[in-house]
Amino acid sequence: MQKQDCHPVITEDCINCGACILVCPMEAIEISDSGNSWKIYWWACNCCWACARECPVSAITDINA
Description:
By secondary structure, the chain is of the alpha+beta class. It is 15% helix and 18% strand. A hairpin with a 6-residue loop joins strand 2 (29-31) and strand 3 (38-40).
């Protein structure tokens, strides 16, 4: 199966609630050591967008959008 072409990113609107990391089936989201920023490893993402649907402030988008 070919991977979809998606590149999700977390924008500055992120409130660091952690909702996205809890719903990611691929464990492709990581919090920084300082605890104040998040990163999505797009190469590990399966493009299901569960993170974006769960985000209360719509802080996850596709970099290509």
